[in-house]
């Protein structure tokens, strides 16, 4: 029967103008979405390149001064070698370069900063990341490949499968088919499987053309993304198969499937995110900013006291010249650490709430296939909120390393030498593709589609063809 | 070959078929006559296992239909009132698909021979079915029965809506198949066609078989009178 059905479906689909037209539309959608992803990638890359060039220029300027000093000259801009200047003005640029996979799933990358100037001017605890609210609430984002796959492809699947059984029943052809020695549940499943692979082939061609066009190397992440897509498509086919069997008429099937699409794709993700905000509300950001201002003001008013306390905790930084050896900058640097300690509980409150929100969304993501797909796709592309959180943590850690590196110079009042410039800490971000999460989500999608298929097979197998109800 | 033994079907306290007993032997064409709702189609659907009997049994070739429907469906061919085929496929492609589902494999020249035997014009073989008349579609149905080498033919008002010429051609095909020992059970409203084509006639009313007779025993006029008598009773 499978050979007949394959030949039959190919004949029917190739003569179905709707199918041919929608194949063309799907191809165009993928190419357009790929174009958007590419533009976003290039724009982000250009921003980074510009920022890196500016940073390089600053380092070159400082290096040229250091070379001059090293050669025994006394340049007028020798102040540039002061630890305060290099720690705060020259600084270090922390960047999160876009992965080529981000051309497929822009994810949160247009909401989060992907370059941070590391400078001892700012307290690292309150770096200006503006996402101290739940980032997942903006799931519906750019028109990229992930959007086409997550939101539009299910509609195409619904359009081509909603009436596979009911159309046969309504026309009376199902009786003719069932008068042959076939099991209608197996016959229907075969038609679904054949259509699944037909859509998969078309989708693969559209994706491969897009991937070649936008230039994504073939690697494990891309393979996982393709497998994830196949699993997501299987979920919708499985759901449609079950609805076909439970449903009474083509009209009811179409309404049921579209309602399920609305619930699973639009309503559930929103409800999950809103519930996260309601259950774990974020503390007031205004209150946090006020607290930071107040702490800064109070610490600057008692800078001498702060410095004394700091030196008690860091005796290795004490110079022989006595207390008068220290000025404004030593007090400033010392107060930063103290401020971080004082603000830590407040920042922790924000971080905890955010972590709880994220954990809530993570635990309920199994309710919505689109959340499962988006979550896995953005993790593979390195553009998920988790990837950005990793970047933020790396930046915060590096900020502390950066300041700690300059403390001895500041307190010893030493200028940096040419050799010191080569030993400055360098930031590097190592993206961690979320393969585990991707394969868990992929597995859940496949499991659900399998369960739908088994349930459908049992229901159809048990009932009589013309059974009422 | 085909037997209904106290075959009964009820839906929510409505008795659609009440203790039906009938037999159709190889080579016989048994015509079930009756008004709408008399139970003719219910009988056909029970023999096809599209519905389950409430009590009694439908038996084909000594096998109870409800117990082994897959085995039974290898023996039967079914032609409904409106034979709905795949409009985007040709008659030949439709025949190829349906015979394939029946587990038969034929080359296209063999399939063409079946269509030819069923009386379809050669130039229509490769035309899409959407351009076919009802009579042409019914001929594809007969070709399916021939290709399937069916021992039992179940027909549910197959000549309804056919013009007299097409209806006559269809009757000739049935006669030819019955000469090949095919047992045929046909539900119909067409008294004339039943008398001309059938070997036996059963008149049904309110789910019961109220009259059974051989077509040799009665002429057209008496058959009509008998039918109306039962309908008006």
From TrEMBL, chain A:
The keyword Transmembrane helix applies. Keywords: Coiled coil, Membrane, Transmembrane, Transmembrane helix. The keyword tRNA processing does not apply. Signal peptide: none annotated. The chain crosses the membrane at residues 16-34, 145-164, 193-214, 220-242, 254-272, 438-457. Residues 38-65 form a coiled coil. PANTHER family: ABC TRANSPORTER PERMEASE, ABC-2 TYPE TRANSPORT SYSTEM PERMEASE PROTEIN. This is ABC-2 type transport system permease protein. It comes from Roseivirga pacifica.
UniProtKB/TrEMBL annotation, chain B:
GO terms for molecular function: ATP binding; ATP hydrolysis activity. It comes from Roseivirga pacifica. It comes from the Bacteria. Keywords: ATP-binding, Nucleotide-binding, Transport. Residues 2-231 form the ABC transporter domain. This is ABC-2 type transport system ATP-binding protein. InterPro entries: AAA+_ATPase (IPR003593), ABC_transporter-like_ATP-bd (IPR003439), ABC_transporter-like_CS (IPR017871), ABC_Transporter_VariousFunc (IPR051782), P-loop_NTPase (IPR027417). Pfam families: ABC_tran.
């Amino acid at each position: 029967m499978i050979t007949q059905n394959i030949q039959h479906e190919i004949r029917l689909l190739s003569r179905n103008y709707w199918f041919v037209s929608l194949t063309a539309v799907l191809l165009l959608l993928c190419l357009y979405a790929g174009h958007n992803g590419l533009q976003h990638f290039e724009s982000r890359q250009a921003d980074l390149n510009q920022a890196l060039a500016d940073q390089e220029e600053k380092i070159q300027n400082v290096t040229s001064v250091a070379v001059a000093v090293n050669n025994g000259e006394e340049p007028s801009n020798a102040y540039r070698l002061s630890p305060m200047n290099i720690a705060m003005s020259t600084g270090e640029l922390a960047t999160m370069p876009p992965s080529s996979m981000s051309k497929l799933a822009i994810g949160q990358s247009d909401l989060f900063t992907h370059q941070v100037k590391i400078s001892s001017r700012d307290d690292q605890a309150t770096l200006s990341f503006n996402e101290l609210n739940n980032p997942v609430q903006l799931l519906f984002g750019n028109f990229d490949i992930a959007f086409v796959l997550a939101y539009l492809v299910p509609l195409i699947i619904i359009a081509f499968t909603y009436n596979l059984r009911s159309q046969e029943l309504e026309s009376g052809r199902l009786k003719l088919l069932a008068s042959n020695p076939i099991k209608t549940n197996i016959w229907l499943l075969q038609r679904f499987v054949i259509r699944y692979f037909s859509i998969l082939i078309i989708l693969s061609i559209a994706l491969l053309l897009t991937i070649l066009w936008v230039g994504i190397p073939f690697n494990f992440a891309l393979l996982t993304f393709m497998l994830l897509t196949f699993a997501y498509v299987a979920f919708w086919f499985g759901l449609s198969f079950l609805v076909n069997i439970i449903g009474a008429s083509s009209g009811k099937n179409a309404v049921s499937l579209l309602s399920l699409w609305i619930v699973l794709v639009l309503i559930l993700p929103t409800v999950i995110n809103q519930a996260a905000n309601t259950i774990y509300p974020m503390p007031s950001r205004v209150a946090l900013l006020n607290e930071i201002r107040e702490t800064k003001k109070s610490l600057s008013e008692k800078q001498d006291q702060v410095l004394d306390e700091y030196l008690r905790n860091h005796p290795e930084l004490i110079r022989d010249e006595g207390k008068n050896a220290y000025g404004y900058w030593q007090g400033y640097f010392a107060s930063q650490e103290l401020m971080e300690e004082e603000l830590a509980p407040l920042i922790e409150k924000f971080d905890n709430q955010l972590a709880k929100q994220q954990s809530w969304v993570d635990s309920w993501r199994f309710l919505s296939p689109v959340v499962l797909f988006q979550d896995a796709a953005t993790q593979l592309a390195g553009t998920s909120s988790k990837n950005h959180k990793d970047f933020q943590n790396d930046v915060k850690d590096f900020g502390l390393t950066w300041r700690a590196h300059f403390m001895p110079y500041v307190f010893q009042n030493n200028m940096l030498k040419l050799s010191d410039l080569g030993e400055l800490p360098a930031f590097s971000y190592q993206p961690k593709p979320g393969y585990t999460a991707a394969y868990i989500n992929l597995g859940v999608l496949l499991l659900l589609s399998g369960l739908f298929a088994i349930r459908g097979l049992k229901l159809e197998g048990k009932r009589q063809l013309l059974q009422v109800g | 070959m085909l037997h209904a033994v106290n075959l009964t079907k009820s839906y929510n306290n409505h008795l659609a078929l009440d203790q039906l007993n009938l037999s159709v032997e190889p080579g016989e064409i048994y015509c079930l006559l009756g008004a709408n709702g008399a139970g003719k189609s219910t009988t056909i659907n029970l023999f096809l296992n599209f519905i389950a009997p409430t009590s009694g049994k439908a038996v084909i070739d000594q096998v109870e239909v409800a117990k082994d429907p897959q085995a039974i469906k290898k023996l039967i061919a079914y032609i409904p009132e409106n034979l709905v085929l795949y409009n985007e496929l040709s008659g030949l492609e439709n025949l190829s698909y349906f015979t394939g589902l029946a587990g038969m494999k034929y080359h296209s020249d063999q399939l063409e021979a079946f269509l030819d035997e069923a009386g379809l014009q050669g130039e229509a073989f490769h035309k899409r079915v959407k351009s076919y008349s009802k009579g042409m579609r019914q001929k594809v149905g007969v070709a399916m029965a021939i290709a399937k080498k069916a021992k039992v033919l179940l027909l549910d008002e197959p000549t309804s809506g056919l013009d007299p010429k097409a209806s006559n051609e269809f009757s000739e095909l049935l006669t030819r198949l019955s000469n090949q020992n095919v047992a045929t059970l046909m539900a119909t409203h067409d008294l004339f066609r039943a008398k001309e084509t059938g070997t036996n006639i059963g008149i049904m009313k309110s789910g019961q078989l109220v009259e059974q007779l051989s077509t040799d025993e009665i002429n057209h006029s008496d058959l009509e009178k008998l039918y109306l008598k039962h309908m008006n009773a």
